[in-house]
Amino acid sequence: MNFNFYLLKSFRILLFPFSLIYGLIVITRNFLFNKQFFKSARFNMPVICVGNLSTGGTGKTPTVEYLLRLLRTDYKVATLSRGYKRKTRGYALAHESTTALEIGDEPMQFHYKFPEVAVAVGEERIVAIPQLLHDRPDTEVIILDDAFQHRSVQAGFNILLTDCSNLFTRDFFLPTGDLRDQRQSYKRAQVIIVTKCPPTLTEGEKKVIRDEIKPLKDQHIFFTSMEYETPYHVITREERRITHNDEVVLFCGIANPRPLKNHLGEQAKTYSELLFADHHIFTIDDLKEIEHKYRQIQSTDKFILTTEKDGVRLMKFQQQLTHLPVYVLPVRHQFLFNEGERFNNLVKAFINNFHTQSKTP
């Protein structure tokens, strides 16, 4: 822990009165939804929501990608995100010439990796869903990205994520803590996934976490770890494995780079880092700084590494990147305790039951 960490922590504690005000607003809002003073819309469509109770990275993007891989061969799937930090507003459906500036980095990543999936953005989900269904009337499943706290749309299947190292049960409201919703809201979820667990998590550790969360009788709880795959070049898609001889320049603009740094520390000989704010919009000067840091390394075993989210924000510099060894590191969720199939079956059962019931006269 460094001085800046303690300084930030002390500053957040001083903001405790604002957390109380924020918490009161959140609790009041939830009360009004629960008592139906505020209405939630339901759609005649299987809607799966992926979200969390806190800010920061809990693994929502890899979870959405997991669902897309699981469902895309059997169903016409669409994703709907807010499109955070994009330069546009309102509803938009991704097309061949869409950029990350128009729809945001996570939706652009979905569009880039799953071109057969309808990828849409819109701040108001209740408005965007009818527009999406109008544009893609053959849609059979909608996945809402980061929408658990947006209660204007009532999803039929809610997947709540919580970071193993920062469980929502130990957190507090913003800005002192990271919670943007109250802890009790976890009860709305059908599935809870504890993400970013150590791959070596034991049954005993699993029980401790489960007992702390206290899932309801009808809730299902799963545990996942982050699995990094082989890096590939951001433009050419050529793969390159990380070796213990490599000296790497790591740059990224994500909420929680700690797991990535830990992984790189284990795999590479050394690495230097350039960390940017979450969802940072890269400039040509940023790229020059990254290249300069790379050129300073004397070793021939060297390359530049970033995340897939950051990679899609760099595509506007395609000409410059063609001649630079900039690789992106894919990441997936790995279900622990051999429970991936049980999760898959729950998701597919929800969709199939929904379609069966909708056909019943």
Give a description of the structure.
- The model has no long low-confidence stretch (mean pLDDT 94).
- 36% of the residues lie in helices and 20% in strands.
- The protein has two domains: 39-225 and 335-359, 3-Layer(aba) Sandwich (Rossmann fold), CATH 3.40.50.300; 230-329, Rossmann fold.
- The chain is built from twelve helices and 14 strands.
- It is globular.
- With 361 residues, it is an alpha/beta fold.
- The strands form two sheets. A nine-stranded mixed sheet has the order 3-4-2-5-1-6-7-8-14, with helices on both faces. Strands 9-13-12-10-11 form a five-stranded mixed sheet, with helices on both faces.
Number of beta strands: 14
Identify the CATH architecture of the largest domain.
Answer: 3-Layer(aba) Sandwich
Computed CA radius of gyration, to the nearest angstrom:
21 Å
The CATH topology label of the largest domain is Rossmann fold
Q: State the separation between the terminal residues, measured CA to CA.
A: 62 Å
Sheet of most strands: 9 strands, mixed
* Strand arrangement in the largest pleated sheet: 3-4-2-5-1-6-7-8-14
Strand content: 15-25%
The domain count comes to 2
The share of residues in helices is: 25-40%
Task: Quote the average pLDDT.
Answer: 94
> What's the helix count?
12
Task: Please trace the helix and strand order, writing H or E for each element.
Answer: HHEHEEHHEHEEEHEEEHEHEHHEEH
The general outline is: globular
The CATH superfamily title of the largest domain: P-loop containing nucleotide triphosphate hydrolases
Low-confidence stretches: none
